[in-house]
Amino acid sequence: MFVEGAKEGFNVGVRIIPYLVAMLVAIGIFRAGGAMEILASILSPVTRLIAMPAEALPMAIIRPLSGSGALGVMSEIIKSHGPDSLLGRMVSVMMGSSETTFYVLALYFGSVGVTKTRQAVPAGIVADIVALLASVWIVNLVFGRA
Fold first, then answer.
1. Structural domain count of the chain
2. How far apart are CA 121 and CA 101, in angstroms?
3. Residue range 97-132, pLDDT digits in tens
């Protein structure tokens, strides 16, 4: 019984590897190619409108895609701005209140062979946007704008 379950788990792992590799490579290209900085500069008027520091935008973009990528972004921000800064607190709350939506969808749907995700993607995106806005609002409310 255990051996059969382990065998099935291994097969699932093998089936999802292409999805994970593709997503991680795409994220690496996105960051290394400078697209992150371009997108951040384009969206900076929106970040000002919602009282979010522009430096937090990479976290908001990467978090739905990759937990480890988001952790790297958060670590860089905390090293440069400090953990007790408004920005450090904001990215920490973003990290804790959101999910790696596209990673989870690729993992779960890819492992069982689902190709039509229906409302899962829009629901995940809406949840991520709500988590982002709530993070910004709560951190600004509790810790104030610096």
1. 1
2. 8
3. 999 998 888 878 877 778 788 898 899 999 999 999
